[in-house]
From TrEMBL:
The keyword Cytoplasm does not apply. Belongs to the HHIP family. Residues 1-23 form the signal peptide. It is found in: Secreted. This is SRCR domain-containing protein. InterPro entries: 6-blade_b-propeller_TolB-like, Folate_rcpt-like, Glc/Sorbosone_DH, Quinoprot_gluc/sorb_DH_b-prop, SRCR, SRCR-like_dom_sf. Keywords: Disulfide bond, Glycoprotein, Secreted, Signal. SUPFAM superfamilies: Soluble quinoprotein glucose dehydrogenase (SSF50952), SRCR-like (SSF56487). Residues 613-625 have a biased composition (Low complexity). The lineage of its organism: Eukaryota, Metazoa, Chordata, Craniata, Vertebrata.
C-alpha cells in the first residue's frame, strides 16, 4: 500500500504547504506607492518607486543625523548602515506590511519587521541603536535576550520581513505595474461616488474650476454634486415633463446627454439632447439653456432655445452624445433612425449625406445671441456639396453611444483631440472608432470589419474607415464608449482607452502600439485578493454599464445600474482606481473654486461593500439521511455496512418512523455533471427550472456567471468559465438558458439577464461549464 499512502502524503503536503505572498504594496497612510517626482538623496533604494517624496526623505535624513550623532566612531562604522536601512523602510512600497499598519487590531510598529538572521546580526553588533529608534518598553525589556528580542520584531507573514522581501521575486516582479491575472486581465478597483440614480446616462463637469459634477438621469433630471460628494436637493435641471421615455427596460428614448459650453464660466450656457413627442411624431431635440441669474447650481428653465430637432422614424437608435471639441464647435452624434438594418431609402440614412441621422454633426453655437441659433463651420467637409447637409462632419455610423475627445498625454500632449466613439452593432459585432472629418464609417455596408449589406459592401469605397477594434456578440451586445485615461492619480493607466459593454457588463481596454499603430486589447477585472484592500475601495459593480465620464481633473468614472429602467433607482457611479501605483503626495491636489449653495446638501452615504473572497471553512463529515438542499453539495455520508445499526436513520426505521421525502430542488438550483456523474467543483452546468433540469448555452458565458454557479455550490473561487461543451453535451436535456449576462453578485442564474427560459439560438455543442475551487488559485 505504499503507493496510495505516498500519494496521500504528497496531497496533504501540497494542501498545507505555505502559500507564496500575494503582492499588496501599501504605504503607512494606506495608499498605494508612487514614483517620487524627484530623486531621493537618503533612501535611494526607493527613489524609483516607494512611499516617500523628497520632503519625507529629508526628514528621515535629519533623523539619521540626530541618531548617528549619539554613536562613537567604532559604533558608527558598524551600525550607520543598519540605521539607514531601518529608517528607510518607511519608504518601502511594502511599508504597511513591515510596520503592521494594515492590521487595525495591532499598534503600528516603531521598528519594521525583521527577518530572524538579520535581526540577530544587528543585535550582536548594534544593539544600542534599537533603544534610540524606539521607546517601546516591551522591546527594551527584551533587549538582553536575542531570541525573545528578535521574535518580538518578527512578522507573522515572513514573506514581508526585511531584508528578505528585497529578494522575493513574487513580491518584486512587476512591482509598480498594473496587476494582471494569468489570463492578462487588468485588475482595477473602484470608489463608489453616487448611488440611488434612475438610469444615470451622463456625468459631466462645468470646467469652471469648481470641480462640481452633474449627473443626468434618463427621466430628465440633472443633479449637482459638490467636491465633497454631497448632492444638492434641488435639481440642476428638471425637464421630466417634456422628456419622452418609459419604464420599459431597455427603452432608448429619454434625456440622453448634457454638455457645458467651453466658456460656461463666462456665458453660462449648457446644451442638452433629449427625446420628445410632437403629436404622433417622435423627435430628438438639441436645446440650449442658461444658468439661473440667482443660483449658480440651477439652470433657468425658461431660457430654453431649441437649436435643432430631427424626426426619429423609430423608437430606437436615438444616438445621444454632445461634445465640444478643442475647435470650440458642438459635435452631435445621431443614430440611424432605428429599426434593424437601417432600412430607410436606397442606401439607408447613415450613407445618405442629405439626412442628419446616422451622422456625426458639427455646428457653431458661439455668439448666437443674435442672428441664427447656429452656423456652419467653414471647414466642414461637405459645405460645398449640394447633395449633402452642411452640418455633416462624418457619416456611415449606426448608433454611436458615448464618445470622447482625448485630452492628450499630460506631458507631451500626444494624442490630443482624437475623437473616440463606441458604435453599437446590429447582429454580430460592436466596434470602437476614431472619428475624423469627412470620413465614412461603413454602416450599413459594414458591421465591424465584416460585410453586413453584401451588395453595398461590394460597391463601397476603399476609403471607408475601419474600426480600431471590434468584438463579437459572444463578448457583449451593446458597446459603451469610454475615455483615454489622462488623469493624475493612476499614472499607469495613462494612454489606456477604457470602455465597456452595456449588456455583458464587461469592462475592456485598448492600448495603442505606437510602433505599429495597432491597438492591443486587455480585459479589465475587479481586483482579487488584496488588490483592492485599501480604505474606501470596492471590487464589484452593477452589470449594465450605461456611460463613462471624466471629472474636471481627468479622473475616470463609469455609470451603471442593476435594473436598466428609466424609473428604477438602482444606478451607481464608480470612480476607477489603479492600486499598483499612485501619484506622489500633493501632485493631484486640487483647490476648487468656491460654490455658493442655496439648496440643502444631501451627504453621500456609500452602500456598496468590498467583497473579500476568503475560503469557507470545510464542514465536518457527518452522516445524513437528506439530500443536500438548494443544489449545494454537502459532505458525503460515510457508508454504513449492511447489518450495522450505528448510522442515524437506521434507528428511525426500526422504530417504524417514515423516512422524510426528498424535497424537489428550488428554481435556479444548479449542479455540475461530468461523464454522466456529478462533478465535484467542475463540470457542465445544469439548472433546475419549473420542474426540469436543463443546460446553459455559452453565449455570453463569462467568469461573473461562473462565479454565481460556484458560489451556489459552496465554492468561493472560480477558476474558469468553460465553453463549447468541454465537459460533454447534455443532449438528454433541454437548453433552458442562453445569453446569460451576470455581474457576479446574483444569487442564481435566473437573477441574471438572459434570453428567457427555454429561448435560445444555440446547440448542445455550446453547453457551458465551470471549474470552481475552495482555495484561491493564482490567476483565478
Amino acid at each position: 500500500m505504499r503507493g496510495p499512502r505516498a500519494a496521500l502524503a504528497l496531497l496533504l503536503a501540497a494542501a498545507f504547504a505555505p502559500r507564496p505572498a500575494r503582492p499588496h504594496p501599501q504605504c503607512l497612510d494606506f495608499k498605494p506607492p508612487f514614483r517620487p517626482p524627484r530623486g531621493l538623496a537618503f533612501c535611494r533604494r526607493y527613489a524609483e518607486f516607494g512611499c516617500c517624496d523628497p520632503s519625507r526623505d529629508r526628514a528621515l535624513l535629519q533623523r539619521f543625523y540626530r541618531l548617528s550623532a549619539r554613536l562613537d566612531e567604532r559604533a558608527y562604522a558598524a551600525c550607520a548602515g543598519h540605521l539607514q536601512e531601518l529608517l528607510c523602510q518607511e519608504c518601502s512600497p511594502y511599508a504597511a506590511h513591515l510596520y503592521d499598519a494594515e492590521d487595525p487590531t495591532t499598534p503600528v510598529r516603531t521598528i519594521p519587521g525583521l527577518c530572524q538572521d538579520y535581526c540577530t546580526q544587528v543585535w550582536q553588533n548594534c544593539r544600542s541603536i534599537f533603544r534610540s529608534l524606539s521607546a517601546d518598553p516591551e522591546l527594551i525589556a527584551l533587549e538582553n535576550n536575542v531570541v525573545k528580542f528578535c521574535r518580538y520584531l518578527s512578522l507573522e507573514d515572513t514573506d514581508y520581513c526585511f531584508p528578505h522581501l528585497l529578494a522575493n521575486q513574487n513580491l518584486n516582479q512587476n512591482l509598480g505595474l498594473v496587476t494582471a491575472d494569468a489570463e492578462g486581465c487588468l485588475q482595477l478597483c473602484l470608489v463608489e461616488v453616487a448611488n440611488g440614480l434612475r438610469n444615470p446616462v451622463a456625468m459631466v463637469h462645468a470646467n469652471d474650476g469648481t470641480h462640481r459634477f452633474f449627473i443626468a438621469e434618463q427621466v430628465g433630471l440633472v443633479w449637482t454634486y459638490l467636491p465633497d460628494g454631497s448632492r444638492l436637493e434641488k435639481p440642476f435641471l428638471n425637464i421630466s415633463e417634456a422628456v419622452l421615455t418609459s419604464p420599459w427596460e431597455g427603452d432608448e428614448r429619454g434625456f440622453l446627454c448634457i454638455v457645458f459650453h467651453p466658456k460656461f464660466k463666462f456665458n453660462g450656457k449648457v446644451y442638452v439632447y433629449y427625446s420628445i413627442e410632437v403629436g404622433y411624431e417622435e423627435r430628438i431635440r438639441i436645446s440650449e439653456f442658461r444658468i439661473s441669474p440667482t443660483d449658480m447650481n440651477a439652470l433657468d428653465h425658461g431660457s430654453e432655445r431649441i437649436i435643432l430637432e430631427i424626426e426619429e422614424p423609430a423608437s430606437n437608435h436615438n444616438g445621444g452624445e454632445l461634445l465640444f471639441g478643442d475647435d470650440g464647435y458642438l459635435y452631435i452624434f445621431t443614430g440611424d433612425g432605428g429599426m434593424a438594418g437601417d432600412p430607410f431609402g436606397t442606401f439607408g440614412n447613415a450613407q445618405n449625406k442629405s439626412a442628419l441621422l446616422g451622422k456625426v454633426l458639427r455646428i457653431d453655437v458661439n455668439n448666437n445671441d443674435r442672428g441664427p441659433l447656429y452656423r456652419i463651420p467653414p471647414d466642414n467637409p461637405f459645405v460645398s456639396d449640394p447633395a449633402a447637409r452642411p452640418e455633416v462632419f462624418a457619416y456611415g455610423v449606426r448608433n454611436m453611444w458615448r464618445c470622447s475627445f482625448d485630452r492628450g498625454d499630460p506631458h507631451t500632449k500626444e494624442g490630443k483631440g482624437r475623437l473616440f466613439c463606441g458604435d453599437v452593432g446590429q447582429n454580430k459585432y460592436e466596434e470602437v472608432d476614431i472619428v475624423e472629418k469627412g470620413k465614412n464609417y461603413g454602416w450599413r455596408a459594414r458591421e465591424g470589419f465584416s460585410c453586413y449589406d453584401k451588395k453595398l459592401c461590394t460597391n463601397s469605397s476603399l476609403d471607408d474607415v475601419l474600426p480600431i477594434y471590434a468584438y463579437p456578440h459572444k463578448m457583449g451586445k451593446s458597446v459603451t464608449g469610454g475615455y483615454i485615461y489622462r488623469g493624475c492619480e493612476s499614472p499607469n493607466l495613462n494612454g489606456l482607452y477604457i470602455f465597456g459593454d452595456f449588456m455583458s457588463g464587461r469592462l475592456m481596454s485598448l492600448k495603442e502600439d505606437r510602433a505599429t499603430g495597432e491597438w492591443q486589447y486587455s480585459e479589465i477585472c475587479m481586483g482579487t485578493g488584496q488588490t483592492c484592500m485599501f480604505p474606501g475601495l470596492i471590487n464589484n459593480y452593477y452589470q449594465y454599464i450605461i456611460s463613462f465620464a471624466e471629472d474636471e481633473a481627468g479622473e475616470l468614472y463609469f455609470l451603471s445600474t442593476g435594473v436598466p429602467s428609466a424609473t428604477a433607482p438602482n444606478g451607481v457611479v464608480y470612480k476607477v482606481v489603479d492600486t499598483s501605483r499612485t501619484a506622489p503626495p500633493g501632485k493631484c491636489q486640487v483647490e476648487p473654486s468656491p460654490v455658493k449653495v442655496k439648496s440643502k446638501r444631501i451627504p453621500f452615504v456609500p452602500k456598496e461593500k468590498f467583497i473579500m473572497r476568503t475560503p469557507t471553512p470545510q464542514p465536518r463529515l457527518r452522516t445524513t439521511t437528506e439530500a443536500p438542499r438548494g443544489g449545494v453539495p454537502g459532505p458525503q455520508s460515510p457508508r454504513t455496512p449492511a447489518g450495522d445499526r450505528t448510522g442515524p436513520g437506521t434507528g428511525a426505521e426500526e422504530r417504524g418512523q417514515r423516512r422524510k421525502k426528498k424535497k424537489p430542488p428550488s428554481n435556479g438550483t444548479v449542479r455540475l455533471m461530468r461523464q454522466g456523474r456529478r462533478g465535484r467543483g467542475r463540470g457542465r452546468v445544469e439548472i433546475f427550472i419549473d420542474g426540469e433540469w436543463g443546460t446553459v448555452c455559452d453565449d455570453g458565458w463569462s467568469r461573473p456567471a461562473a462565479a454565481v454557479v460556484c458560489r451556489q455550490l459552496g465554492f468561493p473561487y472560480v477558476v474558469r468559465a468553460t465553453k463549447k461543451a468541454e465537459f460533454g453535451e447534455g443532449t438528454s436535456l433541454r437548453i433552458l438558458l442562453d445569453d446569460v449576462q451576470c455581474s457576479g453578485q446574483e444569487g442564481t442564474l435566473l437573477e441574471c439577464s438572459h434570453a428567457g427560459v427555454g429561448t435560445h439560438n444555440c446547440s448542445h455543442e455550446e453547453d457551458a461549464g465551470v471549474v470552481c475551487s475552495r482555495e484561491e488559485v493564482a490567476g483565478g
